[in-house]
């Protein structure tokens, strides 16, 4: 993503590029752990979707189907909030090579 | 209709506010600026101003309301002093960073501790790196004139930077002076219609104001902010000239008094400059070639123009009504001494801190400074680079 020089910026920090946070892949600085989705345990309560601070729970045809790792920071809130005894979201370790973390 | 009115400094600011009639006024009363807020509140109650008057629970909130209102697209003013300005601190930087042309009148007062309500420049000098333009006034007339010009300067499209106008607490804020109050319509015409840039109330445009920046953008946004205040000198000069053409009182970056053939010079801002003029007259009558330079604009600092005016002097005394503990001299001194660094021809220069907490400075004190300058000019020797005036040793 090309970054503007100071002369190209809009006055007073104003950002006219509405919705540009989708370009900011917050998943690139994930914590070293990530939530893993176990579909057979999911009761479709949508708690994970409500609580996720980065809107990274994937929903397809009105059903939770997993996690969007482009934006998941690995905070673990979804796993904490997931209600079933056999959780549908559990944190697992992951190893990411530095090259994969760099923004697209 | 232009009229002569007997007003104190606070009333002149309230009168100018009534004439400009900003969209939003948000202020919290604090000595010695209380009467500005009180008088504006009375004007609002009497139906003499159409803008919103908001009295929040603190100065921090007052500046926050100003920031919100200015972001929404309003012309906005406030007034405060001392601890009130200190409580606004973090919001001052935000107003400047967001390039909001807010205008504030500051009845300059000391900072605690010890608590003291009287006049010095500690409050605004503490805010000197906040990104605000700073203009200081010698008396009520200048406070009135500066305050009206402040809107034009702040709102200029190349500047879009908040402006504060300083008037010395009590010495100006509470002293009556016969001033020329210009015609309401003429003042309104001079400040003109306000055209906001990217107002939040324009719902046809999607935008974010005040987003977070990480290491990749903060530096660029700060540099972009600095451009605004660096564009200000041309605008300050043009507005000062236009004000002169329209109302007969022209303003520049500083005033020079009896400087034509001067060998020594006292630099002092605000109300004390008036007293200093008397002292200069007295010393001139005794044959001393002394002058006065009274800075009006402190931010942006007119370093080149001041250096040009002072470089030919043999000795210069810079008088500061604030201290900068641990620094090499008080704020005005460090600016001026630094401004002269690149000149091979430059005067001996000394710094005196005076008037903290409203301590009087009299004609005799300026005369003493003048005599010391004469001695430095004659011998080329500086016994004491940084000293104090009218302090019990």
Task: Give an overview in words.
The complex is a heterodimer of chains A (104) and B (393). Chain A has 104 residues and is an alpha+beta fold. Chain A has three helices and four strands. Chain A has helices at residues 47-51, 77-81, 98-101; strands at 33-37, 57-60, 63-67, 89-93. In chain A, the strands form two sheets. A two-stranded antiparallel ribbon of chain A has the order 1-4. Chain A has a two-stranded antiparallel ribbon with strand order 2-3. The longest helix of chain A has 5 residues, at 47-51. With 393 residues, chain B is α/β, with parallel strands linked by helices. In chain B, 40% of the residues lie in helices and 18% in strands. Chain B is built from 14 helices and 15 strands. Chain B has a seven-stranded mixed sheet with strand order 3-2-4-5-7-6-12, sandwiched between helices. In chain B, α7 packs across α10. Chain B is globular, with a radius of gyration of 21 Å. The relative contact order of chain B is 0.12. The mean pLDDT of chain B is 97. Classes of the chains: A alpha+beta (104), B alpha/beta (393). The interface between A and B is medium-sized, with 15 and 25 residues.
Discrete helix count of chain B: 14
* Rg of chain A computed from alpha carbons, rounded to a whole number of angstroms: 17 Å
Task: For the record, give the distance between the C-alpha atoms at the N and C termini of chain A, rounded to a whole number.
Answer: 7 Å
Number of helices of chain A: 3
Oligomer: heterodimer
Structural features:
heterodimer, A: 104 residues, alpha+beta, two-stranded antiparallel sheet, 3 helices, 18% strand, B: 393 residues, alpha/beta, 7-stranded mixed β-sheet, 6-stranded mixed β-sheet, 14 helices, globular
Helix/strand layout:
The complex is a heterodimer of chains A (104) and B (393).
Chain A: E1 33-37, H1 47-51, E2 57-60, E3 63-67, H2 77-81, E4 89-93, H3 98-101
Antiparallel strand pairs in A: 1-4, 2-3
Chain B: E1 3-8, H1 9-20, E2 24-26, H2 34-45, E3 52-54, H3 59-72, E4 76-80, H4 82-87, H5 89-97, E5 103-108, H6 122-126, E6 133-137, H7 140-155, E7 163-168, E8 176-181, H8 184-191, H9 218-230, H10 232-247, E9 254-257, E10 264-267, H11 272-285, E11 290-295, E12 297-299, H12 303-310, E13 315-320, H13 331-339, E14 348-353, H14 363-379, E15 386-388
Parallel strand pairs in B: 2-3, 2-4, 4-5, 5-7, 6-7, 10-11, 10-13, 13-14, 14-15
Antiparallel strand pairs in B: 1-8, 6-12, 9-11
């Amino acid at each position: 993503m090309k970054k503007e020089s100071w002369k190209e910026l809009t006055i007073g920090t104003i950002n006219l590029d509405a919705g540009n946070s989708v370009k900011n892949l917050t998943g690139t600085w994930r914590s070293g752990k990530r939530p893993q989705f176990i579909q057979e345990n999911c009761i479709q309560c949508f708690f994970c979707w409500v609580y996720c601070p980065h809107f990274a729970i994937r929903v397809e045809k009105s059903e939770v189907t997993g996690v969007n790792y482009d934006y998941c920071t690995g905070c673990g809130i979804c796993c904490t909030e997931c209600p079933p005894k056999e959780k549908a979201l559990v944190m697992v370790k992951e190893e990411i090579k530095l090259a994969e973390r760099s923004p697209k | 209709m232009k009229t002569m009115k007997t007003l104190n400094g606070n009333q002149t600011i309230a009168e100018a506010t009534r004439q400009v009639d900003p969209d939003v006024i948000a202020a919290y009363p604090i000595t010695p600026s209380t009467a500005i807020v009180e008088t504006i509140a009375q004007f609002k109650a009497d139906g003499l101003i159409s803008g919103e008057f908001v009295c929040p629970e603190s100065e921090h909130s007052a500046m926050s309301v100003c920031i919100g209102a200015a972001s929404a697209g309003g012309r906005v003013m406030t007034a405060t002093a001392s601890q009130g300005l200190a409580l606004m601190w973090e919001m001052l930087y935000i107003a400047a960073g967001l390039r909001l042309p807010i205008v504030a009148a500051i009845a300059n007062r000391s900072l605690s501790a010890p608590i003291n309500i009287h006049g010095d420049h500690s409050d605004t000098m503490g805010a000197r790196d906040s990104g605000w333009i700073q203009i200081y006034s010698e008396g009520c007339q200048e406070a009135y004139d500066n305050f009206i010009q402040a809107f034009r300067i702040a709102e200029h499209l190349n500047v879009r930077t908040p402006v504060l106008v300083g008037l010395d607490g009590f010495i100006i804020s509470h002293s009556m002076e016969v001033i020329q109050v210009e015609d309401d319509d003429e003042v309104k015409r001079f400040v003109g219609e306000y055209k906001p840039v990217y107002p939040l109330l324009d719902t046809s445009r999607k935008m974010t104001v005040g987003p977070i920046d990480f290491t990749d953008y903060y530096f660029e946004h700060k540099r972009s902010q600095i451009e605004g205040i660096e564009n200000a000198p041309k605008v300050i000069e043009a507005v000062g000239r236009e004000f002169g053409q329209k109302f007969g009182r022209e303003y520049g970056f500083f005033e020079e008094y009896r400087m034509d053939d001067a060998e020594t010079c006292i630099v002092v801002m605000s109300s004390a400059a008036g007293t200093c003029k008397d002292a200069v007259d007295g010393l001139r009558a005794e044959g001393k070639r002394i002058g006065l330079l009274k800075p009006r604009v402190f931010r942006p600092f007119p370093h080149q123009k001041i250096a040009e005016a002072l470089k030919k002097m043999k000795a210069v005394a810079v008088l500061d009504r604030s201290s900068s503990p641990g620094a090499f001299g008080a704020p005005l001194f460090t600016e001026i001494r630094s401004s002269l660094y690149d000149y091979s021809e430059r005067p001996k220069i000394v710094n005196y801190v005076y008037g903290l907490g409203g301590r009087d400075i009299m004609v005799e004190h300026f005369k003493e400074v003048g005599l010391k300058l004469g001695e430095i000019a004659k011998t080329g020797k500086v016994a004491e680079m940084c000293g104090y005036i009218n302090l019990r040793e």
